[in-house]
């Protein structure tokens, strides 16, 4: 299944969960319902969902605490809070913390579908950027400490001879390191390497 079309609904109200699952199914979206925050966390990964609807108040862990726990993962899909009138200040605070939006109960079906579809579109964009960043970070992790040193100097525009002098190693060794760096990073030139890191939003460390 495409995670960009899957919605998680976390609410302790059985009737509301069932109604939302049915509503989204009529709009060509797959939704999966959870009766508690703990149930979602027990089987959660960032790739499973493109949007999460979280009830602010639930027995045990509430939606705000669940949102904080989700932030511990490498990627968090857009989160929309479902709130009662008295929970609006908490939901507004959650928006400042990175939530996508909140909806007051009872809500209009079309309104919540519109919000979720916007969140799914945002997720598609952000997820692509996350995957690109993760790939680049994985390649960087494969570099040895010495290769990282050489790479940083390459990115400053230093020539092989200058790098050799800087690190007190031979030019031949620098050439070998440079070749391995480009191979591991899946690029052909130093310019491509710089562009790859820039586009992924990753700094050489």
Automatic annotation (TrEMBL):
Keywords: DNA-binding, Phosphoprotein, Transcription, Transcription regulation
Top-rank taxon: Bacteria
Residues annotated with 4-aspartylphosphate modification: 55
Molecular-function annotations in GO: DNA binding
Domain Response regulatory: 6-120
Pfam families registered for this protein in UniProt: GerE (PF00196), Response_reg (PF00072)
InterPro entries: CheY-like_superfamily (IPR011006), Sig_transdc_resp-reg_C-effctor (IPR016032), Sig_transdc_resp-reg_receiver (IPR001789), Tscrpt_reg_LuxR_C (IPR000792), WH-like_DNA-bd_sf (IPR036388)
Residue span(s) of domain HTH luxR-type: 136-201
Database matches in CDD domains: LuxR_C_like
Annotated Gene3D superfamilies: 3.40.50.2300, Winged helix-like DNA-binding domain superfamily/Winged helix DNA-binding domain (1.10.10.10)
Stated name of the protein: DNA-binding response regulator
Species this protein is from: Chitiniphilus shinanonensis
Record gene name: dctR_2
């Amino acid at each position: 299944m495409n995670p960009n079309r899957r919605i998680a609904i976390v609410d302790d109200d059985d009737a509301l969960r069932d109604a939302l699952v049915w509503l989204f199914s009529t709009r060509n979206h797959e939704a999966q319902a959870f009766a508690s925050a703990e149930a979602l966390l027990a089987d959660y990964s960032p790739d499973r969902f493109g949007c999460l609807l979280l009830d602010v108040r639930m027995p045990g862990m509430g939606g705000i605490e669940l949102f904080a726990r989700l932030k511990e993962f490498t990627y968090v899909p857009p989160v929309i809070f479902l709130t009662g009138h008295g929970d609006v200040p908490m939901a507004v605070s959650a928006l400042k913390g990175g939530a996508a939006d909140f909806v007051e109960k009872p809500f209009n079906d079309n309104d919540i579908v519109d919000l979720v579809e916007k969140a799914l579109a945002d997720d598609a964009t952000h997820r692509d950027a996350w995957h690109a960043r993760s790939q680049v970070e994985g390649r960087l992790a494969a570099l040895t400490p010495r290769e990282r040193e050489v790479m940083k100097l390459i990115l400053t525009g230093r020539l092989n001879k200058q790098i050799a002098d800087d690190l007190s190693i031979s030019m031949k060794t620098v050439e070998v390191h440079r070749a391995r760096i480009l191979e591991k990073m899946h690029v052909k030139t130093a310019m491509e390497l710089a562009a790859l890191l820039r586009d992924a939003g990753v700094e050489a460390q």
